[in-house]
């Protein structure tokens, strides 16, 4: 009744070595934790078929899938079925007696979170696990989605950390084992970028690529997102089902606003630091409790810089089905705008330099928030435009060039009724014209100058006046300089000045200035 050994398995050598080391030390009690779709079951299947494990436990290896159990009696019944027992009301005692009188045995409980997570059954399950681990000859290994171990058990140390996405090299090898090696490395990496190297996502996309090819799958992802790989019937063949099981976790349901935080994080590839979680006035009562719930269920993780992040497949799923509300976005937009304004106010000073790191660590976050706000019915579009202009100014000053968001807000120009906002936006467009060529620059400047009839801002008006003068001079010199250079090359200085005064159409002389 053992499951088959995985035929395609890459990138878990370190985890496998750690598990085998624990088995060599005695009779271990091991937890394999991680997000849904990360390959916990595959790792457990590799372990149960490993030569060292086969030699040590022979026929006394049991692999029980716990998906269908919802209580301790049902879990004991599943284990009893693998032991060849007849059905009964509660086989817990019989299972314990069997293992207590058996030679050294290994029991693997796969997907134990199904029966452990509900509060009504958790205490009974933990008590049953405790009794199992009291048996000196029984090695116990469980797999659970999340990052939290059941209580009442003396789990063997050192604990295994929750398993992480595959390395890029292992992800490529897994992909190419499924989809053949007829695809370019660049195409493969483009597809892998959609998976964040999550094994389940890699497997599902690789099988599609094997049939349709990389270009077609990349094109379909633009519109279908995670639904593209969600046609299977269970959590191992359907990514969205796997994610939805994590979302329905009682641990998450116990803190309802956890999903609101997850929805917001789905828009933030750069994640959020603890400082940002605390400083930003989100409409969430227990923001750190929500963070803890997401970490316990492995729907989020903290990177090497201690920033709370979400894997790409989960981000795409949440963004498509459960996008964040304006009430969640607005405080973060305000926080980012305050950072940008403080940078501009202190530009060139030490405090301005310090704020660069804070903004740069959220660079893609700010882009996504602004992009999203421009394409949804946002309550205050003026805030978005002002923030976009300031973000563009920051981007130019740190050498990243003008942001493409300018192209989006340019379309809003004709409909703006706020005169100050209109002038502010035109100012940013004109100053960024080298990065984004603007037709009719002079007419835009004239339009901006007309706005100052309705409000008073000498600094901004002065900037436009200088821009207007520079634009006029540029046009003027563009028409006359070719003639001047030809004269300088062909004549002596005296002859040049003689020809210049004899040139009635010279713009410099014709204006009388």
TrEMBL record:
Keywords: Hydrolase
Pfam families: nSTAND1
Oxidoreductase found in the keyword field: no
Gene3D superfamilies found in the cross-reference section: P-loop containing nucleotide triphosphate hydrolases
Coiled coil, from the record: none
Superkingdom, taxonomy of origin: Eukaryota
A single GO molecular function term of this UniProt record: hydrolase activity
Transmembrane segments: none
InterPro entries: nSTAND1, P-loop_NTPase
Boundaries of every Novel STAND NTPase domain copy: 5-146
Protein name: P-loop containing nucleoside triphosphate hydrolase protein
Record's signal peptide: none
UniProt keyword annotation of Plastid present: no
């Amino acid at each position: 009744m053992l499951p088959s050994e995985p035929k395609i398995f890459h990138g878990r050598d370190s985890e496998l070595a750690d598990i085998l080391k624990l088995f060599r030390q005695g009779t271990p009690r091991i937890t394999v934790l991680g997000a849904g779709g990360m390959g916990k079951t595959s790792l457990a299947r590799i372990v149960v078929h490993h030569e060292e494990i086969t030699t040590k436990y022979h026929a006394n290896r049991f692999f029980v899938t716990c998906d269908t159990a919802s209580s301790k009696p049902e879990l004991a019944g599943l284990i009893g079925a693998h032991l060849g027992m007849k059905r009964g009301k509660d086989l817990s005692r019989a299972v314990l007696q069997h293992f207590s009188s058996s030679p050294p045995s290994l029991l693997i409980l796969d997907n134990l979170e199904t029966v452990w997570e509900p509060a009504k059954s958790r205490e009974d399950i933990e008590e049953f696990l405790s009794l199992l681990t009291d048996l000196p000859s029984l090695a116990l290994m469980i797999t659970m989605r999340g990052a939290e171990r059941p209580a009442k058990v003396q789990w063997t140390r050192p604990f295994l950390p929750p398993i992480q996405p595959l390395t890029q090299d292992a992800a490529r090898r897994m992909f190419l084992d499924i989809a053949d090696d007829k695809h370019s490395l660049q195409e493969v990496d483009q597809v892998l970028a959609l998976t964040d190297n999550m094994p389940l996502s890699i497997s599902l996309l690789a099988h599609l690529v094997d049939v349709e090819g990389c270009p077609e799958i990349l094109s379909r992802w633009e519109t279908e997102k995670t639904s593209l790989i969600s046609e299977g019937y269970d959590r191992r063949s359907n990514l969205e089902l796997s994610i939805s099981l994590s979302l329905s976790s009682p641990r998450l349901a116990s803190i309802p606003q956890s999903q609101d935080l997850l929805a917001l994080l789905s828009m933030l590839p750069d994640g959020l630091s603890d400082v940002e979680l605390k400083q930003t006035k989100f409409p969430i009562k227990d923001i750190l409790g929500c963070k803890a719930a997401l970490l316990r269920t492995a729907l989020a993780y903290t990177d090497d810089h201690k920033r709370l992040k979400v894997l790409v497949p989960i981000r795409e799923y949440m963004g498509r089905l459960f996008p964040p509300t304006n009430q969640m976005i607005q405080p973060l937009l305000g926080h980012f705008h305050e950072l940008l304004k403080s940078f501009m106010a202190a530009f060139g000073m030490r405090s301005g330099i310090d704020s660069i790191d804070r903004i740069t660590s959220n660079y893609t976050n700010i882009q996504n928030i602004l992009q999203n706000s421009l394409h949804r019915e946002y309550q205050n579009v003026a805030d978005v435009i002002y923030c976009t202009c300031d973000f563009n100014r920051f981007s130019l000053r740190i050498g990243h060039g003008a942001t493409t968001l300018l192209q989006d807000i340019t379309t809003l120009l004709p409909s703006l009724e706020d005169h100050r906002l209109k002038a502010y936006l035109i100012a940013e467009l004109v100053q960024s014209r080298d990065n984004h060529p603007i037709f009719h620059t002079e007419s835009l400047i004239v339009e901006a100058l007309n706005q100052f009839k309705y409000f008073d801002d000498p600094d901004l008006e002065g900037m436009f006046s200088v821009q207007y003068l520079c634009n006029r001079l540029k046009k003027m010199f563009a028409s006359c300089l070719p003639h001047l250079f030809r004269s300088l090359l062909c004549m002596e200085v005296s002859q040049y000045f003689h020809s210049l005064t004899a040139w009635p159409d010279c713009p410099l002389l014709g204006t009388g200035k």
